[in-house]
Amino acid sequence: MSAESQHSQIEEQNLIDRYVRGTMPAAERTEFEDHFVDCTECQEQIEIAKSLRQAIRESSDGWGNEQARHRERQASRWRWVAISACVGLLMALGTSAVLLLQRERARSELASARLSSELAPVVFGLRLSRDATAPRDITLPGDSRWMIFLAEIDATRYSRYRASVTGSRGEEIWSQDGIRPNSPDSISVAIPSGALHPGTYILALSGAEPDGSLIPVARFPLRLAADK
After folding, report:
1. How far from each other are the two terminal CA atoms of the chain, in whole angstroms?
2. CA angle 34-39-42, nearest 5°?
3. pTM as predicted
4. Distance between CA 146 and CA 192 in Å, rounded?
5. Which end of the chain has fewer beta carbons closer than 10 Å to its terminal beta carbon, N or C?
């Protein structure tokens, strides 16, 4: 079976999710480990899945009690789709290379050995407000890590979206095309913290038409501050 066919089967059978949650039967788990011990792509996805799972559990402190309860109600709808949406971006931006361990050791140690040295992403919730000019105050993480913005919008009109961040003078700081919705009412955007600095920004989302044209969908003003 070709690598492309294997990865299609992994996605269709949701193997990354089942492996991370520990619900995979022992025989199937061993077979999957035989594959990913030599597959850096699957290793990256497992790392991201575990990191994002931990970040979602810890992010309620920054949202407040009401937002945390809302997120927990929605979590079952978008948690693992959000991971899939972020994987392509993280891979494209070039995550750190994996130093392969010996096969026999890797089966039992690979996931924990890599993830123990990685920082979990920081998750921020974004909602459209009546006052579209009111910025969302965000403290930049003190360490280099991924910032995941979960934007709550009507995401039913388009199958792909473009996200961009512009500075106070209208200059584009960062952008990403081909983002898939997490659910009918949310989109996740993953941005490396090193791409942003203290200041004011606009995170804009646009829907991609079949002909390639972009239709503005939402704008989120952000005011970023350094971690004290």
Report:
1. 52
2. 95
3. 0.53
4. 5
5. C
